[in-house]
Amino acid sequence: MKILVADDSLVMRRLLESIIDAWGYEVLSARDGGEAWAVLSQPDAPQIAILDWMMPVYTGLELCAMVRELRRKSYTYLILLTSRGLRQDIVEGLSAGADDYVVKPFEKQELEVRLRAGRRIIDLQAELVAAQAALMEQATRDALTKIWNRASILEALDREVIRSQREKRGLGVLMIDLDHFKLINDSYGHQAGDEALRETARRMQAAIRPYDSLGRYGGEEFLMVVPGCDDFCLSAHAERLRLVMESETFVVAGQEVRLTASFGASSTSSGAETSAEELIRSADAALYEAKRAGRNRVVMAEPLTK
Ligand SMILES: [Mg+2]
């Protein structure tokens, strides 16, 4: 773990460096507040800093306030180093954003205990961030395929509808349904069905552009949002995805299976005031047509122009 030591006294700096280095931390040092800020404002800044109160350019107190102003996701634990022990000063330091303080001259052991406390806070905070990310993942991703779940892909569509109107660009929607999926489940079991869904999601995800969104709409149905894509572009996109499915067999329960999908496509022309519901309804109707016409094909709905 990296620790920043900032003090304008060379003696104090060397002392802190040698002590902290001996405890196994990686020490970075700064000679004044300006140098300290150059380090602390970096994206990969140390998460613990020991800042002298009285320094040129910025005081330790000012640095505390500046670091807090960054509102980083990962916490920076700040220890003020002061030769003043007045109660009033300590209150001022803590309210500026310091987490702790050490009064000079300090006991080695005292500093060690304070650093350990800081480390504990940093570790706890990292765990909290990871737990939040995991919760977010659970709430927005489909558990089986790891692509967006229904609520999230619909949210993405709402966002793109608004954006396409603002930026006067086209927007495409693909409703995709695996053909004869029930047969896979019935012949090879539900685990094989799950594997087929996962593989489908993987293949399509690998074939789309970075700004397209793919979600599981329900059962064996997928919804893809394709921004900046008009009728012509969407048709090419859908056909490519159809081939991605058709061209390679799936290995399901140790057997090679050919699995295809039907595509219903709807799009808006640039800036048309279409709603997400209309786009979905229209793609759904086109998908129904694709199924009725024999599956493993793309059917394009009339572009929505107003
Ligand atoms: Mg000083």
Topology readout:
Elements: E1 2-6, H1 10-22, E2 26-30, H2 33-40, E3 48-52, H3 60-69, E4 77-82, H4 87-95, E5 100-103, H5 108-140, H6 150-167, E6 171-178, H7 181-188, H8 190-207, E7 213-218, E8 221-227, H9 231-247, E9 250-252, E10 255-257, E11 261-268, H10 276-292, E12 298-300
Parallel strand pairs: 1-2, 1-3, 3-4, 4-5, 11-12
Antiparallel strand pairs: 6-8, 6-11, 7-8, 9-10
Helix pairs in contact: 2-3, 7-8, 8-9
The structure holds magnesium ion (MG).
The site of magnesium ion has 6 residues, from loops.
Describe this structure in words.
The chain has 306 residues and is of the alpha/beta class. Helix content is 49%, strand content 21%. Helix 7 crosses helix 8. The protein is elongated and about 85 Å long. The two termini are 58 Å apart. Residues 7-9, 52, 54-55 line the site of magnesium ion (MG).
Order of helices and strands: EHEHEHEHEHHEHHEEHEEEHE
Radius of gyration: 29 Å
Q: What is the name of the CATH architecture of the largest domain?
A: 2-Layer Sandwich
Number of helices: 10
Q: Helical percent range? A: 40-55%
How is the largest sheet built, in terms of strand order? Answer: 2-1-3-4-5
Superfamily (CATH H level) name of the largest domain:
Reverse transcriptase/Diguanylate cyclase domain
**Associated small molecules:** magnesium ion
Please give the CATH class of the largest domain.
Alpha Beta
Query: How far is it from the N-terminal to the C-terminal residue, by CA?
Result: 58 Å
As for the CATH topology of the largest domain, it is Alpha-Beta Plaits
Strand composition percent = 15-25%
What is the number of independent domains? Answer: 2
The coarse silhouette is elongated
Overall pLDDT confidence = 92
The major sheet is characterized as:
5 strands, parallel
The low-confidence runs, each spanning 5 or more residues with pLDDT under 50, are none
Overall number of strands:
12
Derived from helix and strand composition plus strand pairing, the structural class reads alpha/beta
